[in-house]
Amino acid sequence: MGFLKTKGEIYKAVEDVDVGPNSNQFYLTANVKAPRMAGFLVKVFAWLLETPIFGSTMLYFLKRNNLIHKLVTFAELQESPLYVPLHYYEGGKEEENQSGTSPREQVRQALEYMVAPIKDLKSFSRWSILDYSTAYNSKVITPTKVMERFLSAVEQSCTPSMQMSFFINFDAHDILTQAAQSTQRYQQGEALSVLDGVPIGIKDEIDCMPYPTTGGTKWMHKVRQCKDDAECVKRLRSCGAILVGKTNMHELGAGTSGINPHHGTTRNPYNIGRIAGGSSSGSAAVVAAGLCPAAIGVDGGGSVRMPAALCGVVGLKPSFGRVSHSGVLPLNWTVGMVGILAGTVEDALLVYAAISGPNSSHHSQTALPKLYFPLLKSPRPMPNIRLAKYGEWFNDCNEEIRVCCSRALEKLRDNYGWETIQVTIPELEVMRLAHYVTIGSECSTSIGPELEKMNKDEVGWDARVAVSVYGSFSSQEYLNAQRIRNRQLQFHKRIFSMADVIVTPTTGVTAYTIGNDTRHTGELDYINGAALVRYQIAGNFLGLPAITVPVGYDKSHLPIGLQFIGKPWDESLLIHIAFSMQALCISQYKKPEVFWDLLAS
């Protein structure tokens, strides 16, 4: 279709682009031109895209209309490609982490920087990892009793009146066996760590014995067997955590809602008529509902932070490479990272300490920068923290989110004296499209050969649309996307020379309503999808650490999150900032509509 070729954008040299507050850079909003589709419309759209000639024509015009051709495909760039966002650590060789440090030791070290929080009985709070450990050590309750309550709660969550769809798979016998072993360790005074006996959910994108890994599909476990725990799961197991099953997720991680036609739609505990967000929907929901103080997810395009924000919990995505990806479905090699969903920043830190580090079986792997832990004994503020805010981007959300997040920044200023500096982050919509090309190309390359062999009826309708789009990206588009990655990294380095972190709302909208027409087909809602991922992309595409913290609610009592994006390997500062933000908001946290108290007297 050369006669229809779009003229590509000609990008200035990076050094000629102003990132200051008075930059003349134009803020381009997402150019999404697609109506919401579900039910029969999704089926028709999928059939059309899968038609050889007509489908190719449709995909060409879809990419053209959504500016992929102009901004990515035919763009003229000076930068070379950057394929993997693994950052060089400038701290020097003496700062490298020793690969021999065990997960238990790392958890012990992190614990030394914390104290058990004093609970405000007048306000809502979830039980923390320290609460579980204290209850077990004081013989108030045993891990076995907690897991019996857990299983009863999960059974209740599956009743027709709730249909929460938290899990794809869980095994009561395995859970109770783990609990009995933990109970015995506590009786003998030999608990492995503060995580011993603590229930933790694992997203069904991560290998965890004895379960198959489905990736939210009906077919993945048939072509790829789970033979061992993923590295992050091994680390949690070595600390004594009780791994309570495989949490639900959006099929193939290819969506933002958590609506899954095969395994059910995970519902938001704050309002069961609303989405939990995706793709780590089940992991966010089990934490919000009190079933687990923490859970593990995978974040390829906000898939940890987005559902965390919608469900009112903490979501931490570490730097690329900080947590081993061994045993994780290879759906997005260079943008997907294992992350943590937790009820508090402190719990996120403890799980982060447990799972961080290289693959234990690959001793030749490049050493990682030293794992530092922040002091979380009190919300004592660090002086002179500078928060970079790009006003037009920050305000590109609904009004209730904008007001809530702006007030959160005012609290940081008034209580800690932290400064918000105005900056311009150029070409954000370009980065979103380049990330979409990248994650789509990598997913298609990974699973394409298997999909060609199987009956398409095995794949959900919305996922079939996603796979069709993913398979349409060319090598030229992928290469240009990696050149844009290099370009964006240079912009962000300049931003970080002026500020410690970048601050944004976590999502552009709060949890929206689950349509009655989505049950069997899923849905295509690209407008809400673009709003949900609006602030997520830099963390994945550039390999930066990022964390979301609950800071309030909208008029429908749905949670709102504030996100901090940090410099590579600077999780310690990022976690401290999040902890300081949490301290100013935690007394206002609200109890979800759906909640279980597993430690009740």
Gyration radius, rounded: 23 Å
Main sheet record: 11 strands, mixed
Sheet with the most strands: spatial strand order: 2-4-3-7-9-8-14-15-12-10-11
Number of strands: 15
The oligomeric state is: single chain
Topology diagram in text:
Elements: E1 37-38, H1 40-50, H2 52-65, H3 68-73, H4 103-112, H5 129-137, H6 143-157, E2 167-169, H7 172-187, E3 199-203, H8 220-223, H9 231-238, E4 242-247, E5 267-268, E6 271-275, H10 281-288, E7 294-299, H11 305-310, E8 314-317, E9 337-342, H12 345-355, E10 386-389, H13 391-394, H14 399-416, E11 419-422, H15 428-453, H16 461-470, H17 475-496, E12 501-505, E13 523-524, H18 526-533, H19 537-541, E14 546-553, E15 559-566, H20 571-585
Parallel strand pairs: 3-4, 3-7, 10-11, 10-12
Antiparallel strand pairs: 1-13, 2-4, 5-6, 7-9, 8-9, 8-14, 12-15, 14-15
Description:
This protein is α/β, with parallel strands linked by helices. Helix content is 38%, strand content 12%. The chain contains 20 helices and 15 strands. The strands form 3 sheets. The protein has an 11-stranded mixed sheet with strand order 2-4-3-7-9-8-14-15-12-10-11, sandwiched between helices. It has a two-stranded antiparallel ribbon with strand order 1-13. Strands 5-6 form a two-stranded antiparallel sheet. Helix 1 packs parallel to helix 16, helix 15 packs across helix 16 and helix 15 (428-453) runs antiparallel to helix 17. It starts with 36 loop residues before the first strand and ends in a 16-residue tail after the last helix.
